[in-house]
Amino acid sequence: MDAKTISGLGRQLDEYLAQFADCFARRDTRAHLSVYVRGQMSNLERKSVEPIALAADVPVRTLQEFLTHLTWDEERMRRRVAEIVARDHADAESIGLLDETSCVKKGEHTPGVQRQYCGAVGKQENCLVTVHLGYAAKDFHCLLDGDLYLPKSWHEDRARCRAAGIPDEVVYRPKSEIALELYDRARQHGVHFEWLTFDEWYGAKPEFLRALDQRGQKYVAEVHKGIVAWIDRPAVTTRPLQGARGRPRKTPRLRSGSRPAQTLGQLSQAHPKLRDQPWQTYRIKDTQKGPLVWQVKHVLVFLKDEQGLPSQPQHLLVCRSPLTGEIKYFLSNAPVDTLVTKLLHVAFSRWRVERCFEDSKGEIGLTHWEGRRWLGLRRHLILSTVSYLFLAQATQRLAGKKSRPDRVPTPRGDQRRRPIVVAGQSRHPHTVRVDRTTPPVPPSSQRPRSPRPYQNHQTPTATTRHKTV
Question: Which residue has the higher pLDDT, 434 or 334?
Fold first, then answer.
């Protein structure tokens, strides 16, 4: 990057921030937006209010009041972020990414802080947790929105909440409910998600999956092996029970003698359609550490709904790591003729929200916030999405190439032009054309010297073989 390009970024940032001008009624308040965003994108070691203010030669108290007391419309700013993404990055294969992140906080007065599981350190710790919605389309990804998870201990102590400035209408909500609110809000602001994906914690909530079904949203969810379903749909009858007293009821029920539902783990071990199905090897994508390879089995299943009846057919993907033997289960409500490669592409796109967290924490100080007011935290989360969106867009422009989608999983990765056939005899045979010019690692807003994209998977050895035709 030369000096001309660097100087041009300042002008681009001014033009970008001008899109948020109507969020402020006063010019002097609006001026703090640039100070805060530039501070988040600076090379400061800590990007909390005090270091940002001192570096910009602004009174610390003034910048603190910008977050907690000065009047400006943070909700309009949140909506504007979604509108920019919908306008500039709409895509027919866009993916919504739901996940949570946490950061250790020692103070007892920070909103939402209590001893709870902290993913940042992998154990119980005094921390706060925020739930986020990300967006991915082609080689672009960003965080759209985020909200605080308020634990029950805080919800039940309204005096403590009032001391932290938490309004009475802000109450305890399960993380899955917060995720739905983030999703609904983004849709209301014009963002379209062709797909939604999330980890096992959200996938284990049947009511959450049903809520997405009711919204007509396609998803690929990682789920626990304990979820119960049928592979062979049982018969349902409305005939009255024989010998029942009183007025006969015609409530739908399983026909007598129907095979009971089994867990996904049991089905994968015992049902012939899965047990006897050969593993198909898929090269999901290439990383700087090597190819990411999983072995896959696919079948349609019928989940057991809240009435104990079979639901509509869903895709079940049983994925096994050829190195560690780790097993993952994915469910999808996509149409039954959806290609397995498409489902795998969505299922293994969650690394992008993890990369967003990594970049946001390391580059713009998402977890550097230090304060005791709920409004300050809320505004910090929104301002962090503003900063990250600019970095993501600038990275895409500086890449100097047309956006291209991640390739669907194939047995040879994305390095050959000639058509290749997915390994083995898939349920849905198809051919995938691969472009030699596709980069092995999807670009992100991380700086060029950043290490690998976020992945916890080991890479296969040179002896791994992929079937080809």
Answer: 334
